[in-house]
Amino acid sequence: MKILGIESSCDETAAAILENGKVIANIISSQLIHKTFGGVVPELASRAHQKLISLVVKQALEEAKVTKEEIDAIAVTNRPGLIGALLVGVNFAKALSFGLEIPIVGVHHIEGHIHAIFIENPELKPPFLTLVVSGGHTELIHFKDFGNYELFGQTVDDAAGEAFDKVAKMLGIEFPGGPNVDKKAKNGNAKAYRFPRPMLDSGNFNFSFSGMKTAVRVFLQDLSETEIKENLNDIAASFQEAVADILVLKSIKAAKEFKLDKIVVTGGVAANSRLRSLMIERASEKGIEALFPRPVFCTDNAAMIAFCGWKLLQKGIKSDLKMTAHPSIQLAQ
Ligand code: KG4
Ligand code: ZN
Mutual orientation of helices 210-221 and 232-257 as an angle, nearest 10°? Predict the structure, then answer.
């Protein structure tokens, strides 16, 4: 079975083709237009998706060496995300499904992120704990089974990726902030400064990243521009260490409390090199296995959407042409 996946919920226009769960094409076009503004501008994202979508799908078909007539079904992200951006993907997918007379299924973006782990670990069996860390989400979810999820905790303010992006901006680090902070941190000393670990002892599994961002801002107020430049790598490394530390501490605490021996980390921030090494190291000390998708499957991509759609279709779940997009809808309660 060949599935075409389409993803357009934020600033990546992506299309992928999976054949029986194997990725045979994975095209991701990251919109560069937002660089000028230091953040994603929703209306510009929608317009860029419109320009790119047919090109990206065509490229995916070429890479997979299949014609559109050979596609058996379409999976498309329809929730949550920027509404205008989502609608571009959803409407394109609906038109294609109508024209080719093939099934279509709407996929929840976060459910897609979690399914990225199965692409290269098809034998992985639930239950497990999953930490979803992206630009808009920071959630600890109990993945009991396919389609059966429980929310253990989430951020009460900014998402982890959002904190990376905002701190990057304060430091004058180029957009996209997260990956560039990661790069700078590689040449820095993570112990140079101690930033707070908010909600460490909150007694629940929630996170807060807004305070961490403010702590960096206050810290920077006492430094001259030259001092910031000279210590940029150390500041980036110390901030990244604080984020990774709190994410790892809370994830391991939740895994132990709910007796789960696997932690699956997904979403854009799961591409962070320090989060990956620290989670693997600390989890293994507790006899817990930490799993991450390859970085290309952590950040937004359509392979994860196609994989999740494939699973949904196997369970008999599909959408129809009445499907629409939803800007904010939680995966788990
Ligand atoms: O999942 P994603 O690609 O899009 C959303 O669904 O939001 O996540 C994007 C977020 C951005 O905030 C980006 O800065 C962050 O993931 N990110 C990283 C890294 N790569 C992407 N943050 C830290 N380190 C990275 N290597
Ligand atoms: Zn995402």
Answer: 160
pLDDT digits (tens, 9 = 90+) for 236-262: 999 999 999 999 999 999 999 999 999
Ligand 1 centroid vs 57 CA: distance in angstroms? 23
Q: Coil, helix or strand for 244?
A: helix
**Is-cis flag, bond preceding 176, omega within 30?**
yes
Residue to probe by mutation, ligand 1, list 115, 164, 298, most atoms within 8 Å of CB: 164
CA nearest 28: which of 71, 57, 4?
57
Nearest ligand to the CA of 269 is 1
If you search the block for the tokens 């007796």, which residue do you land on? 259
Q: Which residues line ligand 1 (CB under 6 A)?
A: 10, 134-136, 161, 164-165, 176-179, 182, 267-269, 271-272, 299-300
Q: Please write the tens of the pLDDT for every residue from 167-221.
A: 999 999 998 899 999 999 999 999 999 999 999 999 999 999 999 999 999 999 9
Phi, psi (rounded to 5 degrees) for 292? -130, 140
Q: Which two tokens stand for residue 144?
A: 């009991």
Query: In terms of pTM, does the model score above 0.70?
Result: yes
Question: Counting Cβ atoms within 10 Å, is residue 101 exposed (0-12), middle (13-18) or buried (19+)?
Answer: exposed
Q: If you take atom 2 of ligand 1, which residue's CA is the nearest one?
A: 268
CA 179/CA 60 separation, integer angstroms: 25
